[in-house]
Each structure stands twice: as C-alpha cells, then as structure tokens.
C-alpha cells in the first residue's frame, strides 16, 4: 500500500486543517512542481525496499492532486511501471476537485484512466451554492454535477464522493435534498460515499470565525438527526454502511482505506505523509515533516541523511497499539473478535455495553458497534478502553 501526499491547493476551504500550501497559477507552480516530482522520485527510490506486504494499492491524496497538470501526474505514475506499462494496481485512487475535472474535461479524465487509475474520489462536500460559498469551495453545485457527468462519460466506473453534514445554515431539509441529488446523478449513483460531520479543526479559518463569534456550531441533536437520515437514505438505496463515515455499493468498499482500518502496513511519500511498519511485535509510525521547503531540501539532493532529516518516527507502546486496534476496528461494521476485544479493552465495560446493546455480537464471533450507535462511537470506545 502506497500513499502519495500532494500538498497543494488553489485556495483554502473554510473548515480545512490539513497540511497544504497554495499553488498559484504561473511562477510558483512552474518553479515547484518539477523539483517536487524529482524529490518524490528520489524518496520512493530510497524507501521502496521498505514496502511491506499488503494490498496492492496506490492512493494519491492531498491537498488537491488534481491541481497537478496531467503531465505531472503522468510523471508520478511512471514511477510505477511494469515493463514499460503502467502497473495495474488492484486499486489506484486519485483525489480530485470538481472544478479541475470541468476545466480539464474528458481528456483529463480519460488521461487518468490511461495511467491505470481505477477509482476517483471527488470532494463535492455540498450541492448547495450558498453552502459551497461559505465553505470557500471553488466549484458550484452545477459544476459538481458536470464533473460527475464528465467522469462517467470518460468511463470511470468507481467514483467516491465526499460530503459534509452538520454545516451551519444547512437545515435537515437541505441535507435530505443533497442526498436526493446524489442518488439521482447522471450516469448512476456513485459507488462510494464518504460523509463527515463538520468539525472545527485547529488552524482552520472556521476556528477563527468561531472565536470571533461569526459562526456557531450546529447542535449535537441536529447533527445526530442528519447522520441518522444519511444512514437511512443510503441504506434504503442499497449502500453498505461499512465504516462510521463510509458507505459503498456491494463490492465497492475502498480497498486501501479498509486496509488502514485493519492495521496493515503502508508507505507514505511526500511532505506530511504518514507511514506504518510492522516488524514482529513492533509497530512503528513515521511521518515526513509537513513542509514542501524542508522536503525539497532533504530529497532533491538525495543526501544520505535525507530520510532522518525530514522524518519523525514513533514506536507504538503496547497500550497505543491496542487502542489503535480497538478504535479502527470498532468504527467498522465487522468489528473485532470478542476474545481479542476482551483482552485489549476493559472486559467489565465491554460486557456492560453488550448488555446495553451499544455493542453487539455478530454471527462470526466478532463484536461491533451497531449502526444505531455509530454516531456516538467515540464515546463508546472511550468508555471501554
Ligand atoms: S479541503 Fe481539500 S481542497 Fe480544501 S483546502 Fe483542504 S485539502 Fe485543499
């Protein structure tokens, strides 16, 4: 499993706390992209021997990977070649924003497929122009529909859409309308939907707006109602709710993300990217410092100390590894084996939640949080660890 982080965006969204840098048209773009690709190539060459067994997936995320011109994505994809042809990953996802698909048109979308991309994850967030403006998104609702149409016409058969609920000013009615629009998109329903509750991220514009009293968080009860509507509407439409925030038509569950949740190792490349290694009982997490400048300085010259210069590493304690295992697996609909949960968590608390129905047994012997409890999964998990 390989993840590549593209830390560039054209503008910053109101709610965003991810690491990303502004990529303006013109000079900065020309100056930075070529060396950035070279640095990625050097990092991959130096670290690929550390790639461990796991699903054969590549995920290019960000930031906004679709700000990259096609030629740059082509260069990145060329790092993974099999005898002169693009490597056929089991799953190769690229994150895109609608405005880039509309401006690139069908050629850009077909180009992505020619590189071996077989899954597109598009950040739509809302189908309401007022909400999109509030979010400081660059596309309109019509633009998001047009982008979807372009992807389908190009032949993309696996599309995931990102949505946000719990947004100030978006009442329950508007949320229902949004879900209705998704299910009625041209070219058929998306194969996958990720829906996240708006949260106030440190460093985001939203955090400042809240601090100045220019905006108020939506109450818990309203968010819960929107979440329950999401579950009901998508459930009725045939989606499997396989993780707290993720829904898939049968057979379209994300391979890459599912492997994260089941604790598989992965290699992350690019500024801010995280990696995870398993060596016997040792679990090691590492991450590149989030700075394009530091990344270029470390990897362009490919110094011997490049990796240690840019990377921070942490070995997980047994307690941390147990907590991570519980947190990731109890957010999924498959949960984890009951004996394992009893060993890793507080058995008395686990039994209490089993009696209360906020944990439930599956026929295969696993224990999960039922869908009706997904909205409060964090507090259930906090109560058993
Ligand atoms: S949400 Fe996505 S597009 Fe918006 S600023 Fe964050 S990374 Fe960039």
Give a written overview of the molecule.
The protein is 42% helix and 21% strand. It has helices spanning 27-47, 70-77, 98-114, 129-134, 141-154, 172-183, 205-211, 220-236, 255-261, 292-299, 306-310, 318-330, 338-344, 347-356, 377-384, and strands at 2-6, 8-9, 21-22, 57-62, 81-82, 85-86, 91-96, 119-125, 159-165, 192-197, 240-243, 246-248, 267-269, 274-279, 282-288, 311-315, 336-337, 360-361, 366-368. The protein folds into two domains: 2-260, tm_1862 like domain (pyruvate-formate lyase- activating enzyme); 322-384, no CATH class. The two termini are 29 Å apart. The protein is of the alpha/beta class and 385 residues long. The protein is built from 15 helices and 19 strands. Iron/sulfur cluster (SF4) binds next to loops.
List key phrases describing it.
385 residues, alpha/beta, pyruvate-formate lyase- activating enzyme, 9-stranded mixed β-sheet, 3-stranded antiparallel β-sheet, 21% strand, globular, binds iron/sulfur cluster
Task: Summarize, please.
The protein is an alpha/beta fold and 385 residues long.
Q: How many domains comprise the coordinates?
A: 2
Question: Would you state the CATH class of the largest domain?
Answer: Alpha Beta
Low-confidence stretches: none
What's the alpha carbon Rg, rounded to whole Å? 21 Å
Basic shape: globular
Total of DSSP H or I helical runs spanning 4+ residues? 15
Q: What strand order characterises the main sheet?
A: 11-12-10-9-8-7-4-1-13
**Average pLDDT level:** 95
What distance lies between the first and last C-alpha atoms, to the nearest angstrom?
Answer: 29 Å
Q: Major β-sheet, in short?
A: 9 strands, mixed
Helix content: 40-55%
Number of strands: 19
């Amino acid at each position: 499993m390989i993840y590549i982080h593209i830390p560039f965006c054209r503008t910053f969204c109101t709610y965003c706390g991810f690491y990303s840098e502004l990529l303006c048209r013109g000079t900065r773009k020309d100056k930075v992209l070529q060396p950035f690709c070279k640095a990625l190539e050097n990092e991959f060459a130096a670290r690929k021997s550390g790639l461990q067994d796991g699903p054969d997936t590549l995920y290019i995320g960000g930031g906004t990977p679709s700000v990259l011109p096609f030629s740059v994505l082509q260069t990145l994809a060329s790092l993974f070649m099999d005898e002169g042809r693009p490597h056929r990953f089991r799953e190769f996802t690229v994150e895109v924003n609608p405005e880039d698909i509309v401006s690139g048109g069908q050629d850009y979308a077909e180009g992505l497929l020619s590189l071996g991309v077989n899954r597109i994850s598009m950040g739509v967030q809302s189908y309401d122009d007022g909400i999109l403006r509030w979010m400081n998104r660059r596309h309109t609702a019509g633009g998001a529909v047009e982008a979807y149409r372009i992807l389908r016409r190009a032949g993309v058969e696996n599309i995931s859409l990102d949505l946000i609920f719990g947004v100030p000013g978006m009442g329950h009615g508007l949320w229902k309308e949004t879900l209705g629009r998704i299910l009625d998109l041209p070219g058929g329903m998306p194969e996958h939907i990720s829906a996240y509750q708006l949260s106030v991220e440190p460093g985001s514009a939203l955090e400042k707006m809240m601090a100045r009293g220019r905006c108020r968080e939506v109450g818990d009860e309203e968010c819960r109602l929107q979440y329950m509507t999401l579950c009901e509407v998508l459930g009725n439409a045939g989606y499997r709710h396989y993780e707290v925030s993720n829904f898939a038509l049968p057979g379209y569950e994300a391979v890459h993300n599912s492997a994260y949740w089941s604790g598989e190792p992965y290699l992350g490349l690019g500024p801010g990217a995280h990696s995870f290694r398993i060596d016997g009982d040792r679990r090691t997490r590492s991450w590149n410092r989030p700075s394009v400048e530091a990344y270029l300085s470390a990897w362009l010259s490919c110094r011997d100390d490049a990796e240690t210069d840019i990377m921070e590493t942490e070995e997980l304690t047994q307690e941390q590894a147990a907590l991570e295992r519980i947190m990731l697996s109890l957010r999924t609909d498959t949960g984890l084996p009951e004996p394992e949960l009893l060993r890793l968590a507080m058995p008395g608390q686990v039994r209490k939640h089993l009696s209360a129905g906020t944990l439930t047994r599956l026929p295969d012997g696993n224990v999960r949080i039922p869908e009706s409890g997904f909205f409060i999964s964090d507090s259930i998990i906090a109560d058993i660890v």
